[in-house]
Design a protein that fits this description.
alpha+beta, 8-stranded mixed sheet, 3 helices, globular
């Protein structure tokens, strides 16, 4: 049987000194928000759409490329691109973005997960989650987090 692959965008959202994760309904695991890239949609557009649908938040995607080009649009480069096995016959090519937000007030759309929680560094270390999610969450926090005031 052949392996199918879908493009997905995932966003680790940082607010001050915490990262937002949710208990995924289908997988029963703590994951960042995200989802499939739709036809003719750019990965960064999918990232922003999924964040809005799943959290109600407006975010600013972290862009590691500050270069400006006068004649073409520079896309927001994901921090990572991962090949994630979903099952033996399906994989996700996942564009991983980091983002910041000005508020922690979440408002997921109807039928989206309402089991969202902001995790501190210590909670990330202690909570049961896939190891790749832990690594990404800690990296996003180290890069974009600010100490609590």
């Amino acid at each position: 049987m052949e392996i199918t692959r879908h493009f997905t965008s995932t966003v680790l959202i940082v607010h001050r000194s915490r990262v937002l994760l949710h208990l995924h309904k289908k997988f029963g695991s703590l994951l960042p928000v995200g989802g499939h890239v739709e036809r003719d949609e750019l990965p960064e557009e999918a990232a922003l759409r999924e964040v809005k649908e799943e959290t109600g938040l407006s975010v600013q995607l972290y862009n590691p490329d500050p270069t400006l080009f006068p004649d073409v649009r520079l896309l927001v480069r994901p921090v990572h691109m991962l090949l994630i096995p979903i099952n033996p016959y399906h994989q996700h090519i996942d564009f991983i973005y980091y983002a910041t937000t000005e508020t922690e007030q979440i408002d997921p759309q109807f039928e989206e997960s309402n089991q969202l929680h902001w995790y501190t560094h210590e909670e990330i270390l202690a909570a049961p989650m896939p190891e790749n999610v832990r690594i990404l969450a800690l990296e996003a926090l180290a890069l974009l987090g600010k100490p609590s005031s």
